[in-house]
Amino acid sequence: MADTVSITKLLWSDITEIYAKVLAHPFLAGLTDGTLPRESFRHYIIQDAHYLRGYARALAVCAAKAPNQGETAMFARHAAGAIAAEQALHAELMAAMGSSAEAAAAEPVAPTTRAYLSYLLATTHGGSYAEGVGAVLPCYWIYAKVGEELLARSSPDPLYARWIAMYGGSDFQAVVDEVLAVTERIGAELAARELDLVREHFTTTSRYEWMFWDAGYRRESWPV
User: Fold this and answer.
1) Which of 68, 94, 119, 218 has the CA that lies 20 to 30 A from 181?
2) Which residue of the set 71, 86, 131, 209 is catalytic?
3) Are the C-beta atoms of 9 and 3 separated by less than 8 Å?
């Protein structure tokens, strides 16, 4: 069992160095000082739209595997919310950049996006419920932490400030808090081996979070 140790504290302690590198990434620095090239932001938004559609499917798997109705309903609601965010915010941002959601959907899924989603879907489908929660948690939690940090700085660019406000707001934090509470409940019941797997998945997808921002900054494409 995970004894009396808070699993969320344990998980976060596993990724403190990763999170520090996330905050230091020039993509995020460029958002807050307004120097991020529009093309890098556009690449990120397009890939995020692709990602959220797959992430919603991973959350739906968590909903299907949840051991009680409350958690099934929560993950189902969050899956629907991911689709809604993809449809609303991304359409708005793409329009502001002179494009459209339809044009974004037609662009190819980049290597890091494909790899991240493949890992999420393989883990949620093939692993236990706890493993699935561990895998999907960084996208919730790191975005809330980053949003909170960036909200304090905001951005002179109104488009970037709009994105920051979404993830730095109290509404998104309330969603994250729901998942953290579920994670704590799960952690109290885990055997040592499954806890190790949850930690491994959590760390892996936290690394993918850094890679996702880096891919956007580099405007990653397939090399061949």
Assistant:
1) 119
2) 209
3) no
Q: Pick from 171, 151, 28, 162: which is nearest to 89 by CA?
A: 162
CB distance 198 to 131 below 8 Å = yes
Tokens of 152: 């304090």
Name the band, by pLDDT with cuts 50, 70 and 90, for residue 1.
very low
Q: Work out the pLDDT band at 2, boundaries 50, 70, 90.
A: very low
The pTM (predicted TM-score) of the whole model is: 0.94
Do residues 155 and 31 lie in contact, with contact meaning Cβ atoms separated by under 8 Å?
yes
Query: 62 catalytic, yes or no?
Result: no
Pick the catalytic residue: 139, 148, 184, 194? 139
Q: Please report, rounded to a whole number, the percentage of residues in the chain having pLDDT higher than 90.
A: 76
Instruction: Pull the structure tokens for residue 203.
Output: 């760390």
Structure letter (DSSP) for residue 189: T
